[in-house]
Amino acid sequence: FQQLRSTFEKVVQDLTTLDTHPQLYSERDILAVINQGVNAHKNNEHNLAVEHFTDALKMKPNQPNIYELRAQSYRALKEYDKALFDVTQALKKPIDPLITLQIRAMIYHDLGLYGNAIEDVTKSMEYPDPPNPEWCYIMRATCATHVDVILAIEDYTHLINTYEAGNKKFYYADRGNMYFKLGSLITAMED
After folding, report:
1. How far apart, in whole angstroms, are the C-alpha atoms of residue 54 and residue 150?
2. pTM check: above 0.90
3. SS3 for 100?
4. Which one, of 51, 108, 99, lies nearest residue 75 by Cα?
5. Which of 34, 41, 145, 185 would suit a FRET pair with 7, their CA atoms being 20 to 30 Å apart?
6. Cβ–Cβ under 8 Å, residues 89 and 74
7. What mean pLDDT do residues 148-171 have?
8. C-alpha–C-alpha distance, residues 27 and 46, integer Å
9. Which of 172, 164, 169, 116 is nearest to 139 (CA)?
10. Residue 154 class from Cβ within 10 Å (0-12 exposed, 13-18 middle, 19+ buried)?
11. At 30, is the pLDDT very low, low, confident or very high (cuts 50, 70, 90)?
């Protein structure tokens, strides 16, 4: 839900700055519809969330963050074509694409397009102060386990050396699995 929260906060911040159409609806009305969508998404009512985000887009068609929100609901419904369409629409708008790239990376991961996912996560990592750098390394390492074992080992090593969270044992285990894939059994067992 951190991605959803970040996107919603961005919607609130950008709501009045990106639309060139005359304002037919008040910001309050638009935010109310978006909030209904966010609440529906949180309650796993993804079809209802899509409806609310679609209504919000009708009210504010040039708001890229609403596309991001709807894409996350489409992803939850496993409607990946629609989710990819929405993130593509968001990326066409004048926004900071950081969150959009991360959402698209998750969609690519779900589709098994690991190289594409790695590319998007890597692009998002190039931005100063991404909202959750640990997530970026986890996501990239997870994708890399399928296509680039060396990159996965590098990312798990970074996670082990950088983060003190309780997940460290999992990072060691995952890195050990990568060493095992490489045939480095002693190193794998050490992890």
Report:
1. 42
2. no
3. helix
4. 108
5. 145
6. no
7. 90
8. 23
9. 116
10. middle
11. very high
For residue range 98-112, list pLDDT tens digits in order. 889 999 999 999 999
Q: Kindly provide the b/e burial profile for residues 108-134, where b requires at least 16 CB atoms within 10 angstroms of the residue's own CB.
A: bbebebbebbbbbbeebbeeeebbebe
Within 13 A of 14's CA, how many CA atoms are on the CB side? 22
Tokens 């909030």 belong to residue: 35
In this structure, the number of other CB atoms found within 10 A of the CB of residue 68 comes to: 31
**Which pLDDT score is estimated for 54?**
96
Q: Residue 79 has which token pair?
A: 């409607």
Q: Output phi, psi for 18, to 5 deg.
A: -110, -10
**Cβ distance 11 to 62 under 8 Å?**
no
Which pLDDT value is given to residue 58? 93
Separation of alpha carbons 51 and 60, rounded Å: 14
What's the one-letter identity of residue 146?
A: H
170: its two tokens: 């999992």
Looking at residue 150, its amino acid is I
Residue from 181, 180, 182, 183 nearest 191 by CA:
180
